[in-house]
């Protein structure tokens, strides 16, 4: 055993300042999520009149009571469209998504938030859906979707959204062909291209009097062909269940439809061949997870010993460090989280050539033993300068990136602090496809620090003026510096990055161990799951 010790004093002024700052950021995250739920809930009278359930009630009925649910990308699209009449800024991209249990089977669940803009597709909502499908494919998760969408808002039409949107249909076909059941409840409209979300499902449940699926609605049909038909005649639930064959089950209302969806997952016995896996008794960390509120300073330039974070995440605070004396600013080592073995990589400073070389070795060793990797990202990037270039910074950094790219074990990322430059890539940033990646509220992501970017551009501007023999206007240089700093700062915090789906969601630091335990369980279950891939997806009759 190699038990970590702590040097943190929760009663210190520094700890308390960090904690108060973190709690302020968490309150802002919670407020955004609360505002979004409130806007959706405001549609309740309209849903009650139609005898429908709100999206949040639908997902609550679908999921197993008391089982964990990991919501994803709750800040998607935040501040990327105007506030409502009440001044609230909504987020989520018009979708609720996450990993949860349906009749005892761990699934990816996606629900149209039709309480907001009638569930119309938003650009970041499309990205969120594609990410949910990607996670389902990677982790062998059945895909359950509750659809009710007005389709795309034609007033905001963008050709790239139309073209890129085809990927969501391709992914549904890939899920089915991979042996992953796609179960769909169509609670309301599923029109035009959206009809294929229903049509590309393996099991389709329609709701009498509410579900509508057609390639062209009555208005478009009349404009295109002159034919006149009602919505029910053209694409109602009864027609599709009895004539077209699109619907496999006809439900009486939302509750009945969700009951059928749960019964489908139960009757498939999809995980019946999964071997029971016994795990040793788990010892919790020796230090309080509450302390994670005060570990990280808001100033990313302030050094942090990330072993203090590890000590509050891993079982029994037991962490066996790898290569502790070599490239010591990059920390690697073995531990367990809720009984799951994991290799941890984190940063106590910029990445130097030795640290990159050590990490490459560690990643390859974890691949050899089949041990998942966890990156606790807190770095301002790679060390620069003549000495580091001579020591092979590019060469060893490239090897580290190659190892991350080609690792054949699950990789998880948590952005705990700074994540700058090539260090973001080398610590398994989003572009390197971690199975799941989350941010703490204080995390910052950028190509470099704002001050460094500003000084770089000011230096270039000065040199250009000097070459031209022109006078240097210091006021203009100051204005340029401020412009660059403001531009970077507006894009580097989680309210900007998570809104753009550059992570899978913002989490409370205190929940990190629970979130990672769930994520590692998903990865472990994926390895055990037996699927029956086919050449094609299941076709409708």
Your description of this structure?
The chain contains 20 helices and 15 strands. It has helices at residues 13-41, 44-49, 55-62, 123-138, 159-177, 195-199, 218-225, 231-235, 237-244, 254-267, 292-295, 307-310, 353-369, 386-390, 393-406, 421-426, 450-467, 474-492, 494-497, 512-528; strands spanning 70-71, 95-102, 105-112, 143-149, 182-191, 203-207, 212-214, 249-251, 320-322, 330-337, 340-347, 373-379, 411-420, 436-439, 444-446. Helix 6 links the parallel strand 5 and strand 6. With 541 residues, it is α/β, with parallel strands linked by helices.
Give the secondary structure arrangement, pairings included:
Elements: H1 13-41, H2 44-49, H3 55-62, E1 70-71, E2 95-102, E3 105-112, H4 123-138, E4 143-149, H5 159-177, E5 182-191, H6 195-199, E6 203-207, E7 212-214, H7 218-225, H8 231-235, H9 237-244, E8 249-251, H10 254-267, H11 292-295, H12 307-310, E9 320-322, E10 330-337, E11 340-347, H13 353-369, E12 373-379, H14 386-390, H15 393-406, E13 411-420, H16 421-426, E14 436-439, E15 444-446, H17 450-467, H18 474-492, H19 494-497, H20 512-528
Parallel strand pairs: 3-4, 4-5, 5-6, 5-7, 6-8, 11-12, 12-13, 13-14, 13-15
Antiparallel strand pairs: 1-2, 2-3, 9-10, 10-11
């Amino acid at each position: 055993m190699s038990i970590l010790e702590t040097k943190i004093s929760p009663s210190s002024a520094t700890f308390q300042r960090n904690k108060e700052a973190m709690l302020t950021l968490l309150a802002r995250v919670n407020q955004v999520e609360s505002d979004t739920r409130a806007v959706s809930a405001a549609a309740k009278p309209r849903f009650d009149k139609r005898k429908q359930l709100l999206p949040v009630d639908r997902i609550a009925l679908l999921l197993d009571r008391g089982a964990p649910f990991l919501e994803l990308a709750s800040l998607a699209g935040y501040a990327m469209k105007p506030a409502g009449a009440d001044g609230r800024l909504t987020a989520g991209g018009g979708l609720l998504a996450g990993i949860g249990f349906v009749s005892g089977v761990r699934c990816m669940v996606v629900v149209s938030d039709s309480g907001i803009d009638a569930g119309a597709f938003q650009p970041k909502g499309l990205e969120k859906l594609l990410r949910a499908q990607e996670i389902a494919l990677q982790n062998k998760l059945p895909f359950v979707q509750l659809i009710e969408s007005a389709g795309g808002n034609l007033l905001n039409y963008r050709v790239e959204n139309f073209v890129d949107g085809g990927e969501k249909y391709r992914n549904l076909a890939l899920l089915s062909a991979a042996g992953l059941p796609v179960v769909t409840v169509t609670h309301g409209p599923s029109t035009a291209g959206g009809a294929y979300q229903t049509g590309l499902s393996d099991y389709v449940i329609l709701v009498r009097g509410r579900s509508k699926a057609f390639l062209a609605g009555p208005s478009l049909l009349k404009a295109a062909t002159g034919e006149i038909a009602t919505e029910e005649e053209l694409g109602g639930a009864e027609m599709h269940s009895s004539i077209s064959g699109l619907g496999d089950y006809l439900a009486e209302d939302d509750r009945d439809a969700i009951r059928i969806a749960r019964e489908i997952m139960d009757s498939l016995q999809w995980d019946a061949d999964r071997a029971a896996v016994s795990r040793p008794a788990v010892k919790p960390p020796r230090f309080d997870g509450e302390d994670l509120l005060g570990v990280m300073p808001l100033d990313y330039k302030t050094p942090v010993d990330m072993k203090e974070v590890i000590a509050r995440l891993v079982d029994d605070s037991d962490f066996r460090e790898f290569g502790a004396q070599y490239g010591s600013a990059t920390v690697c080592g073995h531990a367990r989280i809720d009984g799951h073995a994991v290799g941890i990589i984190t940063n106590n400073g910029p990445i130097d050539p030795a640290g990159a070389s050590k990490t490459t070795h560690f990643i390859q060793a974890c691949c050899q033993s089949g041990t998942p990797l966890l990156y606790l990202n807190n770095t301002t990037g790679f060390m620069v300068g003549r000495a580091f270039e001579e020591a092979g910074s590019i060469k060893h950094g490239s090897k580290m990136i190659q190892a991350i790219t080609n690792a054949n074990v699950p990789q998880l990322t948590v952005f705990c602090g700074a994540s700058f430059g090539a260090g973001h890539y080398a610590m398994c940033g989003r572009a390197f496809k971690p199975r799941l990646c989350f941010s703490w509220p204080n995390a910052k992501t950028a190509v470099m620090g704002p001050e460094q970017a500003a000084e770089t551009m000011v230096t270039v501007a000065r040199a250009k003026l000097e070459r031209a023999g022109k006078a240097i206007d210091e006021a203009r240089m100051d204005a340029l510096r401020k412009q660059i700093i403001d531009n970077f700062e507006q894009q580097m915090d989680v309210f900007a990055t998570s809104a753009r789906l550059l992570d899978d969601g913002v989490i409370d630091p205190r929940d990190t161990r629970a979130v990672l335990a769930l994520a590692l369980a998903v990865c472990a279950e994926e390895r055990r799951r037996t699927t029956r891939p086919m050449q094609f997806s299941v076709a409708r009759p």
